[in-house]
Specification:
With 496 residues, the protein is an alpha/beta fold. Helix content is 37%, strand content 22%. The radius of gyration is 24 Å and the shape is globular. Bound molecules: 2-aminohexanedioic acid. 2-aminohexanedioic acid binds next to loops.
């Protein structure tokens, strides 16, 4: 059966790529299942999309924000109606299990309601002028055309984190979905259109990074870029965007540590470790990838997590019995395989997993066995570099201070977690862990949309999604209204 052909969305019209080239969206659990064919776009498509977004900005910026919000409220309700269908399509293109793709759609719904509420806030500031009979305030203005480059691991949630706040603030958008998971972006944007979004306000250009992403980053009419992906690509994005002085929001890698103290509820920590490490097949920037174990409980915890990890059912995420879906593609399988080899060469011990799964129900997809590595020390590459797969490292420590030091010893700083019943240690950890997010008695995953999301060090460049995203998607305009009917000179006429 011929797979469904999708087009770019430009100025409200669905258009094939200018070159006519396409790319295939393949189900990672079953490579014989082609989800669809999408445009493989290049600079010519990006130019059309940016021109459409620029044109639409002239009118969209003047729509009152509460009216823009009404579209988001409607989109939220429509997404809720379509949740099951969109979740199934997402599992088909991305692989994660249905419970998680339902969560991904739910995250877009949450984001829509959260941001729609901002339509009646978008607060600015007023402040007294230093001069008499003069009024001072600063208001939030839209930035203009925003370019967005989205990852494949949260195919609807992360585009919603970018599109919705940009839209409520009056910007127009060109989004490049990840080449592995474009359908969920299409579903999200189709919902916005059905909710009444005018033509040209959001444009989709699908394709690969070098061909479609790079021209978006470099286009002079794009005023800001929001990027989520690897730190290596993020660095290229920032360097290329610098030539045209674009604001850039980068959301990148992690090597997230969970610390389990000797007084922790071990069963709770075990459940959290399994969910944090193997949920989304470990393919979250927030995934738990280092578990730091107090020496007093290390042996018991290790034995339990190894047994539980080995028993996880890996397979097609549409099967309700499956707990862990496939990895997204062969490249990610190669990365997981390579990191296991690097870890073993450096002295780590393979406790379970460690190889791709290729037989029986796994024959047609890209599966990797849930993997636990023991005897890992903080200096090993496996303890410092992001794998983005179902591979977790166990590291033993003997004091709380040492655990914090190990947790902070890496270049990333997205999410951290501490299991303890000691409230003093909990608050010390909240203060001392170098990360944008810290969980107490919960794993490193599970962020809610209305709190700031992002990290420090190589994880980000200081911006936040969720609460804080409006600071990226708006620019301040300070306004002075002098009603004295005389020339009043600041810094001069008010000086004694
Ligand atoms: C990601 O880790 O790539 O916090 C995004 C979470 C999700 C979002 C994760 N709400 O786990």
């Amino acid at each position: 059966m011929a797979s469904k052909l999708y087009h770019n969305l430009i100025g409200g019209q669905w258009l094939p790529s200018v070159s006519g080239q396409t790319l295939k969206n393949v189900n990672p659990a079953d490579h014989s299942d082609i989800v669809g064919e999408f445009p493989s776009s290049n600079a010519a498509d990006v130019a059309l999309a940016v021109a459409a977004a620029k044109k639409a900005f002239a009118t969209w910026r003047l729509v009152p924000a509460p009216k823009r919000a009404e579209i988001l409220f409607r989109a939220a309700a429509l997404l809720a109606e379509r949740k099951e269908q969109y979740a199934r399509e997402m599992t088909r293109e991305m692989g994660k299990v249905l419970a998680e793709t339902r969560g991904d759609v739910q995250e877009a719904i949450d984001e829509a309601y959260y941001v729609a509420g901002e339509g009646r806030r978008l607060f600015g500031v007023t402040t007294p002028s230093e001069l008499a009979n003069k009024f001072a305030m600063s208001v939030r203005m839209p930035v203009g055309v925003i370019g967005m480059i989205a990852p494949w691991n949260f195919p609807m949630a992360i585009p919603s984190w970018k599109l919705f706040p940009a839209l409520i603030a009056g910007n127009t958008c060109v989004i490049k979905p990840a080449e592995d998971t474009p359908l969920s972006t299409y579903n999200l944007v189709q919902t916005l259109i059905d909710a009444g979004l005018p033509a040209g306000v959001v444009n989709i250009v699908s394709g690969y990074g070098p061909q479609a992403g790079a021209p978006l980053v470099e286009h002079p009419d794009v005023r800001a870029i929001s990027f989520t992906g690897s730190s290596a690509t993020g660095s290229l994005v920032a360097q290329r965007a610098a030539a045209t002085f674009k604001a850039v929001s980068l959301e990148m890698g992690g090597k997230n540590a969970m610390i389990v103290m000797d007084d922790a509820n071990l069963e709770l920590a075990l459940e959290g470790a399994l969910w944090g490490s193997f949920g989304t097949t470990g393919q979250r920037c927030t995934a738990t990838s280092r578990i730091l174990l107090h020496e007093a409980i290390a042996a018991e915890f290790t034995q339990k997590i190894v047994a539980r990890a080995a028993a996880l059912k890996v397979g097609n995420g549409l099967d309700p019995a499956v707990e862990v879906g496939p990895q997204i593609n062969a490249q990610q399988i190669a990365t997981s395989t390579e990191y296991v080899a690097i870890a073993l060469a450096e002295g780590a011990k393979l406790l379970t997993g460690g190889t791709p799964l290729t037989d029986g129900p796994h024959a047609n997809g890209t599966f990797f066995a849930p993997t636990v590595l023991g005897s890992v020390t903080p200096d090993m590459r496996i303890a410092r570099e992001e794998v983005f797969g179902p591979v977790v490292s166990l590291i033993t420590f003997s004091s709380f201070e040492e655990a914090i030091e190990i947790a902070n010893s890496i270049d990333y700083g997205l999410s951290t977690s501490l299991y303890t019943k000691d409230i003093n240690r909990a608050f010390s950890a909240i203060r001392d862990l170098e990360s944008g997010i810290t969980y107490i008695n919960a794993p490193t995953i599970g962020a809610e949309v209305h709190l700031p999301f992002g990290g420090v060090k190589r994880t980000g460049n200081g911006h936040r999604e969720g609460l804080g995203s409006l600071d990226f998607y708006t620019t301040w305009k300070s306004v002075y209204v002098d009603h004295s009917d005389t020339l009043q000179r600041a810094q001069i006429d008010n000086a004694e």
